[in-house]
Amino acid sequence: MGWTSILAIYFLVWVMCAFLMLPFGVQTADEAGVAKVPGQADSAPVNFRPGRVALRATILAALLTGLYIANFEFGWIGVEALDITNYIG
Fold it and tell me: Is-contact 20 72, C-beta < 8 A?
């Protein structure tokens, strides 16, 4: 596998991880006990930290990409393991 393929896979996994990390560690104004700004949505986060989300996504994406590449190289789980038609009927 070429380094450009690894980079593309890492980028896609990073974006998915970033979206998965968004709701973790975020509090609303009601949960934090902070007064709301007039016009603020009830679900708006009080302490959103994009740097922390990016760091967590980077670590998780590196781990998942490493596992994907290791599986690609060593063939732990192949297409035949995911074929459920052999088990039906």
Answer: no
Tens of pLDDT, residues 47-84: 889 999 999 999 999 999 999 999 999 989 988 888 87
Residue 81 has a pLDDT of: 82
- Structural domain including 9 reads 3-86
Written as one letter, the residue type at 82 is L
First-to-last CA distance in the chain? 37
Distance CA 63, CA 75 (A): 17
Output the six-digit token pair for 21: 């990390």
Cβ–Cβ under 8 Å, residues 58 and 80: no
